[in-house]
């Protein structure tokens, strides 16, 4: 199947700093990518929908100024957590849709720990 | 709006026993249905999907699921589980024929297989 790569897989940062997470579709073009957040032992919560060349669409309750999403090309979307706080510590997972079948391919996830 | 309910948060079973993980959904329009598996600190792997056609869907690792439109269910089954099947399982739904929509996930079911 299609491959989605996330980087970094783990990151530790100090409170107040910013962290960028990359999501790449390696063997297909993804006009739409999705960012999810997963708290320990909980489900995946959709944060935002990222469309290539346009502004991301954020879900209710997600701060767009804190979680900056950029989808500058058909194979790359980035999530930047600005002014990170310990409560932002979480597992962030991106996904991309290949074709129109509805199937999403997921990255391996990025675990963010804010000290 | 769509929603997904996974009726069991935890399912403990013995090795080689059969298992069923239950999933119900609600939607006023046609949907696609998915089951994903997540191993600790990893992303999601697709087990199987229902898009259209036969209501019995076979997936990887010996799993299968049956789409029941009248009961709005998509239960996952395996006739004989292995220790290696221990993981978190997520049922998910998306709108059919709409490539730009995200998946909505259930809360997950923890399958614990013991010897």
Characterization of the model:
The complex is a heterodimer of chains A (115) and B (115). Chain A is mainly beta and 115 residues long. Helix content of chain A is 0%, strand content 53%. In chain A, strands 2, 4, 5, 6, 9, 10 and 11 form a seven-stranded mixed β-sheet that branches. A four-stranded antiparallel β-sheet of chain A has the order 1-3-8-7, with no helix packed on it. In chain A, strand 5 and strand 6 form a beta hairpin. Chain B is globular, with a radius of gyration of 14 Å. Chain B starts with a strand and ends with a strand. In chain B, a hairpin with a 4-residue loop joins strand 8 and strand 9. With 115 residues, chain B is mostly beta strands. In chain B, strands 2, 5, 6, 10, 11 and 12 form a six-stranded mixed β-sheet that branches. In chain B, strands 3-9-8-7 form a four-stranded antiparallel β-sheet, with no helix packed on it. A two-stranded antiparallel ribbon of chain B has the order 1-4. Chain B is 0% helix and 54% strand. Chain B contains no helices and twelve strands. At the A-B interface, strand 5, strand 9 and strand 10 of A face strand 5, strand 6 and strand 11 of B.
